Amino acid sequence: MSEDRPDLADRRFDVGVIGAGSAAEALVRELDGSGLAIVVFEPHLVGGECPFLACMPSKAMLHDASSGTSWAEMVERRDTIVEHRDDSAHAEELVELGATLVRQRAQIVGPGVVRANGLDVQVRHLVIATGSTENSLDIDGIDTCSDLVWTSDDALSTTEQPERLLIVGAGVIGAECSFIYSGFGAEVTLVHPGDRVMDRTAPGVSNVLSASLDRAGVNVRCGERAVSIRRDGDCAVVTLSGGEQLTVDRVLVAIGRHANTVSLGLETIGVDGSEPLPLEPSGRVRSEGSLWAIGDVSGHGQYTHLANHHARVVADHLVGTQTRGYDDVTQVGCVFSKPPIIEVGPSWSDLQGDDDVVASGLDLGDFPRATTDELEDGHLWLAARRSTGCLVAASGIGPKFDELVHAIVFAVDGAIPVARLQMSMQPFPTIGEILGPILRDLHAQLTAP
Ligand SMILES: Cc1cc2nc3c(=O)[nH]c(=O)nc-3n(C[C@H](O)[C@H](O)[C@H](O)COP(=O)(O)OP(=O)(O)OC[C@H]3O[C@@H](n4cnc5c(N)ncnc54)[C@H](O)[C@@H]3O)c2cc1C
């Protein structure tokens, strides 16, 4: 059943889900066949960010930006891939799986009670799956230029092709959009207050990324902030902290995202919505026995595969299997820059100063496959724990690394000792050959007297 105001008044549900993005969709799929009565609330797109405004359009645009496709052709292909932001297929799937879909914003009004469009719905378990929202840039003049300032949603759904784009923030979205827009010929400036791009990754990763952005013609301005903005006709004039003024057509703000916990009515059940949700490893909110959080809102990473993982964990608990936790597997992420960046486990910066950790890094440089295929450079950094003798983290950038990452994830999740891993063969000539010397160096460090 999918209606704006379905007949819910006398119905009690086993599971109420607020938000219908990737996390909620995965949860409903996982609970298929469980016999649990599920109600899902969503005022906007069923499917949420990933298929319509985030992962899918960004990957389609990145592909076309480096394949000689024209802007107009790209817009057509992208909009076909994102189903012209029509969520009917997603809504139908939820309903076919037996969920009741309420196309309304929902708010918690007390323990086990959710209000949508004036109706109170009783739920036994409540799952918050409300996603995240981009942080806004609080600088002088921003209110007068709102039509010139883009969020990532705007940058990935627009039909306009700016000639000059200023991107504020050199994280995942800033990096991906730099390659997209420079690939289509825009003059891109990337402003970042830190001293290097993607500054939580290993320095070797930042170096390769900087060189690649440079080759793409992106003007990277590290150590600078945007401090004010004013309108000049159809353009924005942005003043940087160093005093320079840049005139651009659009400004993309990409300075991180925060969990959507405010205005949900969490205070009515004793949870402070202005703070990160206090989650148990099971995904349950500590203060409330039947309240769960999955996906971006959980504060446990912002990736679709994580949202899917959370859904699997919480589904297990809802059907009583109760075997898994959010941290049972290592976190992994890819940034689809050119070349792609991989991050496994804690970041390079998180591990600095940890005496239990040994690390080793290597450039892809002259490995045979890089030479035969004339590949761009890369760098891989691996870290292992002395106490376990196992890999704990990886940070890398390089061609095909988004596929190489799976080998590292299995090694970390399988807790295979470095002593054993360094004996394995990598086929010749593959990108994976880079693993061999790094593992052998880690082994030498781990066994040094
Ligand atoms: C530009 C960009 C590129 C990305 N690329 C990748 C990628 O390549 N790979 C990857 O793994 N991840 C990527 N991500 C991250 C990924 O999109 C998110 O991690 C994922 O969409 C999170 O899913 P979710 O269900 O938690 O949230 P969402 O998809 O945001 O869904 C949350 C839903 O909750 C709804 N909602 C909010 N409040 C209420 C309320 N009160 N009542 C009812 N409904 C409500 C919202 O309308 C929304 O539809 C990208 C993100 C961005 C921004």
List the helices and strands and how they pair.
Elements: E1 2-3, E2 12-18, H1 22-30, E3 38-41, H2 49-53, H3 55-65, H4 71-81, H5 88-96, E4 100-102, E5 106-110, E6 113-116, E7 119-128, E8 132-134, E9 149-150, H6 152-155, E10 164-168, H7 172-183, E11 187-192, H8 203-215, E12 219-222, E13 226-232, E14 235-240, E15 245-248, E16 250-253, E17 257-259, E18 291-293, H9 304-318, E19 332-335, E20 341-344, H10 348-351, E21 357-363, H11 368-372, E22 379-385, E23 391-397, H12 401-413, H13 418-421, H14 435-447
Parallel strand pairs: 1-4, 2-3, 2-7, 3-4, 7-18, 9-16, 10-11, 10-16, 11-12
Antiparallel strand pairs: 5-6, 6-7, 8-17, 13-14, 14-15, 19-20, 20-23, 21-22, 22-23
Helix pairs in contact: 1-9, 3-4, 3-7
Flavin-adenine dinucleotide binds next to helix 1, helix 2, helix 3 and helix 9.
Summarize the structure.
With 449 residues, the chain is of the alpha/beta class. The chain contains 14 helices and 23 strands. It has helices at 22-30, 49-53, 55-65, 71-81, 88-96, 152-155, 172-183, 203-215, 304-318, 348-351, 368-372, 401-413, 418-421, 435-447, and strands spanning 2-3, 12-18, 38-41, 100-102, 106-110, 113-116, 119-128, 132-134, 149-150, 164-168, 187-192, 219-222, 226-232, 235-240, 245-248, 250-253, 257-259, 291-293, 332-335, 341-344, 357-363, 379-385, 391-397.
